[in-house]
Design brief:
The complex is a heterodimer. Chain A is α/β, with parallel strands linked by helices. Chain A has helices spanning 45-53, 74-77, 96-105, 114-119, 135-147, 165-180, 192-198, 216-222, 240-243, 266-277, 292-300, and strands spanning 5-16, 19-30, 34-38, 60-65, 81-84, 153-157, 184-189, 201-206, 209-214, 227-233, 248-254, 257-262, 282-288. Chain B has helices spanning 2-16, 19-40, 53-84, 86-91, 97-127, 135-159, 163-180, 192-198, 202-214, 223-243. The chains are: A alpha/beta, B mainly alpha. At the A-B interface, helix 3 of A face helix 1 and helix 4 of B.
Amino acid sequence: MQGKAVVEVENLRKSYGSIVAVDSVSFQVNQGEIFGMVGPNGAGKTTTIECIEGLRQPDGGAIRVLGLEPRRDAHALRPLTGVQLQESALHDRLRVWEALDLFASFYPRVGAWDHLLERLGLAEVRNIHFAKLSGGQKQRLFVALALVNDPDLVFLDELTTGLDPQARRGVWELIADIRNRGKTVFLTTHFMEEAERLCDRVAILDHGRIVALDSPEALVRGLGRGVRVVFAADPGLDLQPLRSLPSVTHVEVIGDRVVVSGREDRLVVDVVNALSAVGCRFRDLRTEQPTLEDVFLSLTGRAMRE
Amino acid sequence: MKGFLKLTWVELKLFLREPMLGLFTFLFPLMMLFVFGGVYGNKPNDFFGGYGMVDVSVPAWAGLIIANTGFLSLAVSVATYRERGVLRRFRLTPIRPLAILVAQVAVLLLMTACGMALLVIAAKLVFALQLRGNLVSIAGGFVLGSLSIFAIGFLLAGIVSTARAAQTIGMVLFFPMIFLSGSTIPLEAIKGAVRAVAEALPLTYVVMLLRGLWLGDPWSQHLTEVAVLGGVLLIGASLSSWLFRWE
């Protein structure tokens, strides 16, 4: 899985006036991975990705993309990369198929793009003017335009913003397929579930700094919080048998819910067995695992959504 | 090259999908023709040196068509592309900025020429328009005049930051120029201090050059116009390429 570095960033800094947007950020993206940059709005994700794309001039630091310098070697890089910007537009009266046809004509190496219309659910609006598309359709069109040259490296800035859950899953599958064909994907998202489902590695950004960088699983495991089992039970349940289980670290009652925290795989089996042994009737039993959201909370002391 | 040709073709289709642009480029000059031609006819008279009103006005109305595409269509469409982030998206593809600009110019030049051709054909059929000049010369003058006005349009698009500002300033340039340059009111009727203002407007030189070439003057009689328009083109093009911004 670990390929060579296709994006290398060292001590990237960028300020707008007195506001520091990106503050000494360093990381690398390896070939064949989906690398995600997550964080709340204003964390510096878009500034970072746009410096790497060559759209913005960094104040300091070094960036190499596919071995090239994004601003100086822009023309050599363009055919090899695909970009979906967070905010973008086309001429109001340009039809969907014309947009793909036009962008395809800009590249020396380009394949058929009809399959992109199919995969992104745009086939039925191929003759529709840009201005008449819904927000989600525009978003998917820009994803299609980012992929029209079959790039080695794709930048996607907030790729599923404005998509309904079904369309979002479709886009995730498409992005995973691209990675599985050996391409590299660099995306930003403020949507933690997306990072968790899609990314091989995630950099968590807050106030322009990387506060954590690892695979989503490793980040969650690093919390050391284990698993929780939550269920509803009749009042007056004796909690002592649960507390004495070796896999249980903590039991608390919140309203009519019982929350049992513990370690790893044995917990669910142990809790269910213990409850059955005392003849307790429990309802709505479910397990809860910490998410990237919890990782962010524990690293920054704030929730992602504010 | 493939990208440039495709972009030009797409821009052409987009121009034709914009009803307002077609209205001003194709119908407004015809309206001028039928209103003024209907009122004054095209009888030869001394005021116009032995030609009719339509004979001298048709080449002058070219200034109207050129000013419309240059100050309004071109400046607004380039400013809109930049303001909405279309240029920013283009920047991330291999297409060169020059190709984007040349595609715009090619389409607007073609549309301006079509507007002019339509006007000439209608004037010929309805008012027996006279044409003394050489068609190649006239076409050359038309292209020179168009490009120099387009260069001002590009400069305007480079200076302003929004499409709305481009439109407002475009109008501010457009209206005085079409009234004072001889594009609507004949130059013979503009006198005194107003004439001095008229002679400071680039569009006036387009009108003088085209009227002259239309009636068969040799280029040597219009070196001033050629120098002014060539200078405007050169300065406008270099300034606007220096001022060009993607976003």
